[in-house]
Amino acid sequence: MNQTDRGSATYPFDEIEPKWRQWWEANRVYETDMSKVDNKLYVLVMFLYPSADRLHIGHWYNYGPTDTWARFKRMQGYNVFEPIGYDAFGLPAENYAIKKGVHPAVSTAENIRQIREQLKAIGAMYDWSKEINTSDPEYYKWTQWFFLLLYKNGLAYRKKAPVNWCPSCQTVLANEQVIDGRCERCGTEVIRKDLVQWFFKITAYAEKLLEGHKKIDWPEKTIEMQRNWIGRSEGAEIEFPVDGHPDLKLEVFTTRPDTLWGVTYMVLAPEHPLVEKLTTPEHKKEVEQYVEQARKASEIERTSTEREKTGVFTGAYAINPVNGEKVPIWIADYVLVTYGTGAIMAVPAHDQRDFEFARKYNLPIREVISPTGKPSEKPLEQAYEGPGIMINSGEFTGTPPDGAIEKVIAWLEKKGIGRKKVNYRLRDWLISRQRYWGAPIPIIYCPNCGEVPVPEEDLPVKLPEKVEFGVRGVSPLATNPDFVNTTCPRCGAPAKREVDTMDTFVCSSWYYLRYPDPHYDKGAYNPDLVRVWLPVDMYVGGAEHATMHLLYARFFTKVLYDLGLVHFDEPFMKLVHQGVITNKGAKMSKSRGNVVNPDDYIRTYGSDTFRLFLMFMGDYTEGGDWSDEGMHGMARFVNRVWRLVGEYVDNPPHGSETARTNKLVRQRHYAVKMVTRDLERFHFNTAISRIMELVNEISAYRQAVPVEEQNADVLRDAFETLVLLLAPFAPHMGEELWTRIGGEPTVFDHAWPTYDEAALATAKVKMAVQVNGKVRSTIEVDADADKDRVVEAALADEKVRRYIEGKQIVRTIVVPKRLVNVVVK
Ligand SMILES: [Zn+2]
Ligand SMILES: [Zn+2]
């Protein structure tokens, strides 16, 4: 065995992969020419969090397949822009830094350095000249600029608000970060706390965020999640006077004003500002205790349908404006002060939650909607939430369901006690974080002028290097007097800086605008490039971002659009979510100890094989289950392709045989057709199967026909096609094989192969079918159908079936292209 033979036995990924990465980099193959825009294609993956854990399999699953799609598009002639960057601010980086005793800036820089090397191993065609890092002052200067932009347009404001507070992490948490009442990161019990916080007024965009769904091609489930999150509902806002308090009114929102006559009590959120004023002295103690206890529960817990409802009576009464009835006012923690008005009218006969509450506390239940138009004979077993005729409703008694709500609203408006109202579940976005590792909020507090925005020319407000971490209840920035103490930009008086930083979701709400010109210094983004490169054509990332990042980014884009700063109002036209990779059916996690570490496999099999296997495991949007055997299998396939091409190059055919090329030619066209179609739709697994079939067919032809007869032209085309189809999946090997069969690098500048529909048509032959030697029928089959297919067709023939029914088939004889004989007894 000579050197070449030995070298060709297995794919030497450890030589080939670094070789081509260096070549790509030296030849700047993936630096996108931003001036070519006719066929531009902006392909984006959600940028990554540079934690100490490095790249996990989920990153690979997001980035590898998306790169395959991007490479395929490049070969189809698109000028593809595929950037990458780091969402580098945030709590984990800060906590890690505290634990290891290194400054977050140092640990983040080191994490990025190592992650960049890992990212390069994926072999993706990232344009490294466009890399961004959100913790770089060059970047966060513009995050601060966005804050000011929102502020100047009335979309950023400060208010006192109850927040989820983790006493251990010493910060506010989003609702999504509270799991079963505990901090998602450290497990500490979360408490409710009133703090003055900064908010972005995303609620002003509720309607536009809903409308925009019509023009984007996103997974329906994600759109549905956003729709529910925004939670639009139409109804009426009604004012209930408070008995004995002529100055007070309780505002409620209801989607069912037609049930107003069925109100038997009211419920306020424990945090409702009127609770203190309303509560009578004899109920004070009980109410105070309840309020205290409610503080400790998260909103998710409080609104859980499984949790038993609790509440206490305030001693006060409201007056139902439609009939003058006195109804008791309760407080209960299932009502949230942050949703609607923080007060509800309870109609236990027609709302199950109110029904349960009324039963528990012996409150009256009065039917006002009835499917029959008459009250039920027996007491209700549960709330009736369906449509029906209004009963017990004064002048509205007898009103049929159609149009009842509109009629009641018109009547409320005429009487001046209520009005039509659209309500949203969406709340303003709380962006203050009492942490260090984030973009400082560019606001100064002056004793004379109050809240003063930092002038744009003074940006960035840089993070000071020296701060103390872990001072209880204080933002780290507050511990650096040089940072805190400043002068008022308006009047020059001594003033203090805001010491909170911004939620990292602010950084990621606009990063896609920055990529085309990441060092642009005249604005957050280069408007000339944004005009031609945006919106993003294809965005790929996790479904868990549905109601945060994906909503926030849309909000930012819509604000920019309304201000005339960009020409589009949706940032991501098409969105794909990758699925999740499990291990033996279970989600991978450190605590389960079942994490598959990509690095281990890349060391053994190389990056291309790993990429291929990830894509082969299952449907991309559903994910798949990891299997070491599957990985070995993919390695065998890769080696097989490597040997097949190697043998072809070492021993090229010169013949012109045509009798046996049909099947190979057809398989070649079929593979191109199917791989193209499947790649368009992110169906990587089936595309790889078609490539495997082509490999089988080439192999079969090479084995069946003596090399001196093999058709040189057909094989050349088959091998070229194979390498071109395989290249986006296994880019390093693709490049190597392409040069071995005589192509010029880079293979990714070669056009994607095309197919001929005519070549897919199959020649047919008629064959006689005998049963025990007598001709009973004729069948038509593909000229190159194998014995099994022919027999299958013969046995399925109706006439033949009549003669073999109930009999045992002894054997079948096939004379190719002529006849089939079925022997039965
Ligand atoms: Zn915590
Ligand atoms: Zn001032």
Quick summary:
The protein is of the alpha+beta class and 825 residues long. It starts with a helix and ends with a strand.
Task: Give an overview in words.
The structure is a single chain. The chain is of the alpha+beta class. Helix content is 36%, strand content 20%. The chain contains 28 helices and 34 strands. It has a four-stranded parallel beta sheet with strand order 2-1-26-27, with helices on one face. The relative contact order is 0.11. Bound molecules: zinc ion (2 copies). One zinc ion is lined by residues 446, 448-449, 488, 490-491, 493.
The number of E-state strands comes to: 34
Into which percent range does the helicity of residues fall? 25-40%
Mean of all residue-level pLDDT scores: 92
Residue windows where pLDDT falls under 50 for at least 5 positions: 1-8
Radius of gyration: 35 Å
- Looking across the biggest beta sheet, what order are the strands in? 2-1-26-27
Task: Name a few traits of the molecule.
four-stranded antiparallel β-sheet; 34 strands; globular; 825 residues; alpha+beta
List the helices and strands and how they pair.
Elements: H1 3-7, H2 13-26, E1 40-45, H3 57-75, E2 79-81, E3 85-86, H4 91-100, H5 104-122, E4 132-133, H6 137-152, E5 156-166, E6 171-173, E7 178-179, E8 182-183, E9 191-200, H7 206-211, H8 220-230, E10 233-242, E11 245-254, E12 265-268, H9 275-278, H10 284-295, H11 299-302, E13 311-319, E14 326-332, E15 343-346, H12 352-360, E16 369-370, E17 389-390, H13 404-415, E18 418-423, E19 429-430, E20 432-433, E21 443-446, E22 450-453, H14 481-484, E23 485-487, E24 494-497, E25 501-502, H15 504-507, H16 511-514, H17 527-533, E26 538-540, H18 549-562, E27 575-576, E28 580-583, E29 586-587, H19 598-605, H20 607-616, E30 623-626, H21 628-650, H22 662-680, H23 684-704, H24 712-726, H25 731-740, H26 757-760, E31 764-771, E32 774-782, H27 787-796, H28 798-804, E33 809-815, E34 819-824
Parallel strand pairs: 1-2, 1-26, 3-4, 12-14, 26-27, 28-30, 31-34
Antiparallel strand pairs: 5-6, 5-9, 7-8, 9-19, 10-11, 10-18, 12-15, 13-14, 16-17, 20-25, 21-22, 21-24, 23-24, 28-29, 31-32, 33-34
